[in-house]
């Protein structure tokens, strides 16, 4: 009886170990979702460890259960609406942001985290960060300009989650390096990519002035702005209401929302083709010239590549740095020489189509928007010129070009290649192909190959073999 009893106990023990003693297994993370039109998926980082700032409690959901079922996947192919308040403390240069994101999973599979882009995390000493998902406290992690938000569960295809964030950040006081993207100087505040936005984890630091961003379009963005001092705001949205010192702006079909503010801004306005064009600039700035060139650029470019989709277009004088694009608005740095205004306004306006209407991964495939924008600007201004750098590949990321040759290769050589295509296949076929590319990819994300294929398909000539393969070897 003793032997049998021991055998029985051993059998029960083996059954328990078999059923419960094995560690849970998970499939390896699937490849990142590619951009629309991509010939190959773009790489993304594997799931980072979930960690957060002191003072953010752990999620209420049991962590062991989440790990056991996690899909270790995020996606840029999510659809989100943004509702935010921005409070500017003018004297201290600090901002307080409260944001609500309603995100629907419109990708091909479940996701268990969001990767949100904001330069405030890199440049603004972001602090006091609090995040919740569907009312449950989350523990975010900050990696450079990316806030990683664990959802606490898998968000199934077509499911919706509500994410709330709050944080404080401080504007830089100088405009050197990349500071001008998030700075307050010369009584002007520049806030670019300040609003956390669906993205993929992307390094901020680069050896040039390339744009380290990639974001999908949002159907609706609402932003309420207030300040401790009366200010005028130049934004990507249109003013929909005023209540005391609070101004509410709304934008539709945009992929970020830029703000420039100053107590000294003056407004100079006009219209073109039914679009209200407004220049926000300080006294002594070339506001009249900026307005003239902005109106001309909008009209001429729309005639070439398709209608401008917004009712307003804003030109903002910024505290410094470079010319910059944002949906329905462009930035022109203070003190710009008059002879540079036509090109800067034309180039940044062209980004309304190439990056704005048709988006792309500006960090990993800068040729797609920068070359197209530079070609359009120089074509309309008749300013084509040769590159100052030797012929180089056009399929590299912003992290792979030197400061000396980034502009000369991606912008000048890239734009010249597009212009060479125009000459080779003829203007009628070329402009039809470019308009078709804009229409087919409207408000989406396109790949280098998307544009190359659109041009190649416009002719019986083999542009791929004769013109594209040598400059884009990794794409073919």
Report on this model:
The longest helix has 20 residues, at 406-425. The protein has ten helices and 23 strands. The chain is globular, with a radius of gyration of 25 Å. With 476 residues, it is an alpha+beta fold. α5 crosses α6 (367-381) and α7 packs across α8. The model is unreliable at 1-68 (pLDDT under 50). The strands form five sheets. It has an eight-stranded mixed sheet.
Structure in a nutshell:
The protein is an alpha+beta fold and 476 residues long. Helices cover 26% and strands 28% of the residues. The chain starts with a helix and ends in an 8-residue tail after the last helix.
State the helical fraction.
25-40%
Helix and strand content put the structural class at alpha+beta
Q: Give the low-pLDDT segments.
A: 1-68
Strand content: 25-35%
Instruction: Report the C-alpha radius of gyration, rounded.
Output: 25 Å
Total number of helices: 10
Write down the oligomeric state: single chain
The count of strands amounts to: 23
How would you characterize the largest beta sheet?
A: 8 strands, mixed
> What global shape is seen?
globular
- Mean pLDDT, rounded to whole units? 89
* Spatial order of the strands forming the largest sheet: 5-4-8-2-1-12-15-14
Quote the distance from N terminus to C terminus: 75 Å
